[in-house]
Amino acid sequence: PAVPVLTIDGPTGSGKGTISRAVAERLGWLFLDSGALYRAVGLAASWEGLDFDDQEALARCALETDIRFEDRPNDDPLVFVNGAEAGSDLRTEIAGAAASAIAAIPAVRAALVEKQRQFRQLPGLVADGRDMGTVIFPDAGVKVFLTASAEERAERRYKQLKQKGFEVTLDTLLRDIVARDARDTGRAVAPLKPADDAVSIDTTGMSINAVIDAVLALAAARG
Ligand code: C5P
After folding, report:
1. Is 18 part of any known ligand binding site?
2. What does the pLDDT look like over 133-178, one tens digit per residue?
3. DSSP states of 191-215 as a string?
4. Maximum distance among all alpha carbons in the chain?
5. 49 assigned binding-site residue
6. Which GO BP terms, alphabetically (predicted)?
7. 128 lines ligand 1 (CB under 6 A)
8. Ligand 1 site, residue 157, Cβ cutoff 6 A
9. Is the CB of 12 under 6 A from ligand 1?
10. Once rounded to an integer, what is the mean pLDDT over residues 68-84?
11. Which value does ipTM take for this structure?
C-alpha cells in the first residue's frame, strides 16, 4: 500500500505551518513545508541576480537549487539553500513575495513536483502548502483546508514576526496578505483552492490546540 499522506493546504497565516508541524510530530511522520521550497528558490534566484521575468532561468534555478531541511523539535526546521543556512532569510516578507512570484510560473512548479514527492516516506508524511491535496498528493488519505479571516491571519503574522524581532506594521501585513491571496487564488496553474475531497476548517477564533485536535481526529477517523 502507498505511504500515507495527510495534506494541509490554505492561505498564508491560516496556521498551516504550526498545525502541520505539530500534527507531524504527534503522528511521528515526516513533515514537508512546501512553501519553504518556493521561498528557497525565490531566495536563490535573488542571490543569483536572476531576472524575475526570465521563466527558463527561474525553472533551471528551481531544478538546480539544492534544498535540505533539518527538523528540530518545536521549532521551524533549519533550511539549507545550496549549503548555506537560510532559515531566517526565508521567513522575511521579501522571500515570501519572491516565492509567490515564482510560484505562478508553471515550469517552476513542474521542477518542484518530484522534489516534493520524494518526502513521501514511511511511516507517513504531513504536507503543508497550497496544492498538496490537489496536485502533488491527489491520493492523500486525509486532506485538510485551513482558512481564517484575513484580519485574523494578519494579526497572527504580526505576532509571529514581532516575536522574531522583525519590524512590521499590521496595516502592511494585511495589505500583503490580501494581495498574496489574490495572486495565489487567481493564478492559472495550481491555484489555491480546496480539493473536492478536502475537509475545510475555519480557524478564526480557534486555539492552535483545538485545530491540532480536529486534524488528529480526522486522521484517526480515516487512518
Ligand atoms: O506557505 P508560504 O507562505 O511559506 O509560501 C510562500 C509562497 O509560496 C506562497 O505565497 C505561494 O505563492 C507559494 N506556494 C505555492 N505552493 C505551495 C507552497 C507555497 O505556490 N505548495
Report:
1. yes
2. 999 999 999 999 999 999 999 999 899 889 989 899 999 999 999 9
3. -S---TTPEEEE-TT--HHHHHHHH
4. 48
5. no
6. nucleobase-containing small molecule interconversion; pyrimidine nucleotide metabolic process
7. no
8. no
9. yes
10. 87
11. 0.96
